[in-house]
Design goal:
279 residues; mainly alpha; Na+/H+ antiporter like fold; 12 helices; globular
């Protein structure tokens, strides 16, 4: 997984960002990163409210529940769907959007899991964020078109394996954690309610009513349909949360998303007025 995050995923991100004319707009880039942060915070807030209504308390998995149910799978599952439905322009914008998500997860998310009040900004210095920053810098300076030939092809070939390898490793991790704690129907149903109903409504409303570029609306439609993010499992393991609770939310919402994902994308696209590249 370190190889995926430090080498393969940055190569994939750079390959998609370089040469993207959409990212030359400062307003579009700012909106994308801002909504990435803001909508994750809204999802976590909804998760805290539902968790409290369910009777969860601090020390019994409430913070882990809120984080896992409030954070969608913004990378590994979303990127292929965005590229298939909307093309490379929206995909490049997805990675800018994910800067905001990563910032929220590694700042507020870490504070929630660890109980600490301060934020260690060093945690934000990782491969994907550095790749986006470098890519945007080259685009702004007009140097992105200079990255061609064998280096660009090598970058593409290394990056293309990022998502299959990461999903395989994550699946193995989930299997290890799935038997650690007795499944709770309350956690799984509550997680599905937050992740597949309430949070999508908030995300789609932002896409509908805010003055956003079409490509950013396309990204948000896919984000609304995603199941719970795998990052919550990692944070729960690293910072003293309840990883088994996060695994239950991830498994429940991922299984249900086989039914809800196409419905949310179809209905959301119609409501917002978008037309996917594929029927």
């Amino acid at each position: 997984m370190h190889v995926v995050f430090s080498v393969m995923l940055p190569c994939f991100i750079l390959d998609k960002i370089l040469g993207s004319p959409l990212l030359r707009s400062g307003a579009v880039v700012t909106w994308a990163a801002f909504l990435g942060f803001g909508l994750i915070m809204a999802g976590i807030g909804i998760g805290l409210l539902v968790g409290r209504l369910m009777g969860l308390e601090r020390g019994t998995g409430m913070r882990t529940f809120a984080l896992s149910a409030g954070c969608q799978n913004f990378g590994f599952t979303a990127a292929p769907v965005v590229e298939i439905l909307w093309g490379s322009g929206a995909l490049a914008l997805l990675f800018v959007h994910n800067i905001g998500v990563e910032t929220a997860m590694w700042s507020v998310g870490v504070m929630m899991m660890s109980g600490e009040r301060g934020i260690s900004w060093r945690k934000l210095v990782n491969g994907p964020i550095l790749a986006v920053v470098i890519g945007l810098t080259l685009v702004v300076l007009g140097l992105d078109d200079q990255v061609t030939g064998p280096p660009r092809e090598a970058m593409r070939m290394i990056g293309v394996g990022a998502f299959p390898v990461a999903i395989l490793i994550t699946g193995a991790t989930i299997i290890d954690l799935a038997t650690m704690e007795k499944p709770s129907w309350k956690v799984m149903v509550g997680g599905a309610l937050v992740r597949l109903m309430l949070a999508p409504l908030a995300i789609l409303s932002a896409a509908k009513f805010l003055p956003l570029a079409t490509e950013l609306k396309q990204v948000l439609v896919v984000q609304a349909a995603m199941p719970a993010g795998l990052s919550s499992i990692l944070l729960a393991r690293m910072y003293g949360g309840r990883p088994a609770v996060a695994v239950q939310v991830v498994i429940a919402t991922t299984v249900l998303s086989l039914l809800t994902l196409p419905w949310i994308i179809t209905w959301g696209s119609q409501w917002i007025g978008l037309k996917p590249m594929l029927p």
